[in-house]
Design the sequence.
């Protein structure tokens, strides 16, 4: 086996001779040890065709040994132990908090100035047209954007017929208000008889892996939004926390070893009150516990940072729109909480529902955040709500956006 680069990806694939009825729920584990005293246990994930994969990001060079320590009811064929060598590299490693708390740096010590972009349905775009998704990522990478935020789950608004659904089955489409795409019926699509929230869609996760890999190759952070909790399949259920914990475990096992990943638990977690603050807190604490790499964790909120000071959350991923002076003040209110502040939705270029959002004012908003010691995520909304690149994640839906240049 060729050496694995430091902060690269080691993958072990094991074939199963027998496995539980729902293999997605199985959590077999591999222990990895090196000569420098690092000792880590990671979960595997089911990838179809009787195959389980174990992914690992080594953070130290040298010889690593691995062995299966928990089969979780799976009978594996072939060798379940071995070793590989990790070599030094110029990779930056995962994004971490800088020592002063308000800013970011990579594990190798390199600083990062976050310039974000919103691309909610990027995974769906990749499933429909990988080339369009790659062109979209490259366009922003060429303009020195460093952070992409996108959904791993979102089914209320489609992009050219595609949604992002990581679970089993196919949810019914929501009924969108033709006069305002922000509004949708809370009744349509609630019949989930054909859905299975205990299994996971391999095509969706493989597209997410491809997106994360493409972002890493372009030197960009992948801010993975795990949930859009107001989606109709999640309404009126009393078992969501349990369902989401299982989903988080699978996502961490499958995606957590990519060095450019950061987690965002939910977008607008308060919307429609599907999740309570205690639910979010329980999910955040669970995510912190199961992630062996301790990736940065956020939860997207409105103006007030409800979870400030809690150990499981690393940054404020906020939403507040208004004139530059308002955005500046709200950023300053959240900044003393000691964590980085990213206003992920300070305004979208071309957003006629929340004016003024012409190019000049969007630039002023971003400068206001910078002067407050905060960061911002841009979005192109030049062709209207839910039909613009901030949602559809393709350049063909843009109409004379000026800010990226």
Sequence:
């Amino acid at each position: 086996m060729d050496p694995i680069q430091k902060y690269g990806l080691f993958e072990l694939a094991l074939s199963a001779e027998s496995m539980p009825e729902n293999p997605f729920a199985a959590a077999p584990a591999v222990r990895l040890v090196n000569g420098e005293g690092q000792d880590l246990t990671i979960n595997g994930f089911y990838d179809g065709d009787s195959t389980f994969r174990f992914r690992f990001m080594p953070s130290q060079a040298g010889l690593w040994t691995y062995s299966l320590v928990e089969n979780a009811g799976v009978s594996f064929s072939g060798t379940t132990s071995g070793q590989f060598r990790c070599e030094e590299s110029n990779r930056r490693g995962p994004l971490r908090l800088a020592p002063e708390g308000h800013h970011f740096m990579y594990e190798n010590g390199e600083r990062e100035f976050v310039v974000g972009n919103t691309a909610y349905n990027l995974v769906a775009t990749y499933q429909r047209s990988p080339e369009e998704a790659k062109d979209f990522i490259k366009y922003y990478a060429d303009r020195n954007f460093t952070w992409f935020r996108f959904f791993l789950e979102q089914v209320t608004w489609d992009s050219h017929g595609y949604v992002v659904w990581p679970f089993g089955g196919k949810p019914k489409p929501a009924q969108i208000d033709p006069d305002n795409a922000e509004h949708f019926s809370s009744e349509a699509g609630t019949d989930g008889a054909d859905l299975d929230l205990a299994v996971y869609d391999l095509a969706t996760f493989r597209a997410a892996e491809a997106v994360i890999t493409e972002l890493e190759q372009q030197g960009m952070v992948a801010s993975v939004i795990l949930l859009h909790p107001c989606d109709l399949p999640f309404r009126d259920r009393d078992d969501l926390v349990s369902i989401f914990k299982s989903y988080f475990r699978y996502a961490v096992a499958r995606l957590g070893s990519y060095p450019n990943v950061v987690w965002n638990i939910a977008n607008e977690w308060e919307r429609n009150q599907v999740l309570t603050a205690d639910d979010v807190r329980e999910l955040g604490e669970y995510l912190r516990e199961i992630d062996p790499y301790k990736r940065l964790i956020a939860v997207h909120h409105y103006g007030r940072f409800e979870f400030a000071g809690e150990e499981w959350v690393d940054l404020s991923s906020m939403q507040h729109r208004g004139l530059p002076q308002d955005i500046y003040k709200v950023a300053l209110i959240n900044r003393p909480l000691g964590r980085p502040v990213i206003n992920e939705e300070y305004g979208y270029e071309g957003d006629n529902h929340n004016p003024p959002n012409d190019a000049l004012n969007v630039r002023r908003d971003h400068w206001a955040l910078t002067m407050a010691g905060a960061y911002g995520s841009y979005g192109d909304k030049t062709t209207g709500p839910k039909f613009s690149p901030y949602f559809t994640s393709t350049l063909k839906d843009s109409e004379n956006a000026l800010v990226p240049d």
About this structure: The longest helix spans residues 202-217. The chain has a mean pLDDT of 94. The two ends are 44 Å apart (CA to CA).
